[in-house]
Amino acid sequence: MISWLVDDAPFPSVEQALAEPNGLLCAGADLSPSRILAAYRQGIFPWFSAGQPILWWSPDPRMVLFPAEFKVSRSLRKTLRTGDYCVRLDTDFAAVIDACAHTGRPGQPGTWITPGIQRAYRELHELGWAHSVETWKDGQLVGGLYGLAIGRMFYGESMFAHCTDASKIAAAHLARFLEAHNFGMVDCQMRTDHLASLGAREIPRQAFLEQLRTLCQAEVTPARWPASGAVFDWS
Question: Which of 19, 137, 201, 216 is most buried as measured by Cβ atoms within 10 A of its Cβ?
């Protein structure tokens, strides 16, 4: 059994999360900015499908990426060097989260990025907490990702690509940007082969929480990221 959150009830300890399904902790409450931010600071995130109650998770182990460990393959480095694209930050968050919600993925018949999730994260973006990294080509948005930044911690949520390597280009620039601004870790939530190919790895939940507490203490004023803040030399 899991807890049901009512009104402003606090989250239960993540130690109460189920082993199967891995990390399911509780249900209910709302998607207000204060609730979502409180969740992330405790290593918890919302993940549910349309028609389900709001479900909150904290899996063990936890998939993370340390920015300096991002893997740039030979083919991706070649693409990054060509410059046949433009990477921008926070210029069209709404379009990025909408594309993440509507871009099909193999083995995923639907999306967890419901209209309610989109509204919640757009509000977090307006408040300066949620950010987008966008890959543009010939004036069109062709790939990108979004997530939240709290202190020196980034929480990756979703990515999409409408052409080859478009999401990887965004991820590579994000890793460089985070490393340049002393971010310590990216929360990738759960393991996928795609994330592992980019350098992400699993660590025990307890180790994740210990680093999380330190990184979130480095609180900074939330704000839009500079649109040109992801311009790097890949030579």
Answer: 216
